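Session log. Operator J.P. requested a structure for one protein chain; no other inputs attached. Running the standard single-chain path with token output.
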Amino acid sequence: MKYLKTEKELKNLIAADVWMMEILTTVESLHLSDSWVCAGFIRSKVWDYLHHYELRTPLADIDVIYFDKANLSEENEKNYEQALQSSLSNVPWSVKNQARMHVVNGSEPYQSSTDGIAHFPETPTAIGVRLVNGILEINAPHGIQHLITGIVAPTPYFQKDSQMHGIYKNRIQNKQWKSIWPKLQVIY
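Structure written below.
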């Protein structure tokens, strides 16, 4: 398995992918507050790279998050999905305002998109990327080390009690990532 070593190498991997850059450019054009493309968008790209896969592993959706306390309506999220869909119709968009996601996740209110990302279940999924004026930015509240070395572990929030850890373990079983990327090291 080949590894990435630095955030710069991660950015270079993303920047070299025309499709990913098209996604990031499209999201940037909406000018959403504190927005990031997250989770499988980055994770799958890196794991495909680590496994020397030539073809992209298909994604169920493209997770776009933002933070807007002023408008917590789910309808607003759907409007953003439609706007993205009109720009790139072949992409399965999923847009979520992190200012309301704490309710869905049963936690204290998030203070930013970074706080929302920190509450994602797995360390290699708890990462976002965005394009700002042509510059790639990475948002990784738990770092990138697990992602770039193929380690799957629960984030601190999903280690806090047995119920949260159970949710993490169920996700790992349901996602079946090791059947797609067999060299991953899953930590329970």
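Operator note: The mean pLDDT is 96.
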